[in-house]
Design a protein that fits this description.
Layout lengths: L3 H35 L6 H33 L4 H49 L1
Length: 131
């Protein structure tokens, strides 16, 4: 069975290819529109047809990316080291839970400090007012 690193590498290669093609198509579509704009004219029938074709191809690329992601997830579920990945995720999740608990405590202290500072400001304002 494949290991996670191998699955990721294959996914990254495929994603890069899809993204590069999508970017090239976007550039071509913008070039067609920009050319007509520069010439101060509407798109002609061939340009409209080409841009529609590009749009359709880009939608197919988006679908391919979704399928690639799903296939990669399926492969990951069958990978040799999925158990170690699950353990790592659980450990990270626990650490995040601990961090969140600490942040909640810090918020409580900050709120108390803000109340104290507000009270001191009122006392100082009163002292200044009555001299």
């Amino acid at each position: 069975m494949a290991r996670i690193a191998e699955i990721k590498e294959e996914f990254d290669i495929a994603c890069t290819a899809i993204e590069e093609l999508d970017q090239a198509l976007a550039v071509e579509s913008k070039r067609i529109k920009g050319s007509a704009f520069d010439e101060q004219r509407d798109l002609n029938a061939a340009e409209i047809k080409r841009r529609k074709s590009i749009s359709g191809t880009r939608m197919e690329l988006a679908k391919a990316m979704t399928e690639l992601g799903q296939n990669s997830i399926d492969e990951l579920e069958r990978s040799d080291d999925i158990d170690s990945l699950i353990k790592e995720i659980k450990a990270i999740n626990q650490q995040l839970t601990d961090d969140l608990d600490e942040l909640r405590i810090m918020v409580e202290y900050s709120e108390k400090a803000a109340r104290v500072a507000d009270g001191l400001a009122k006392v100082v304002a009163t002292v200044i007012k009555y001299g």
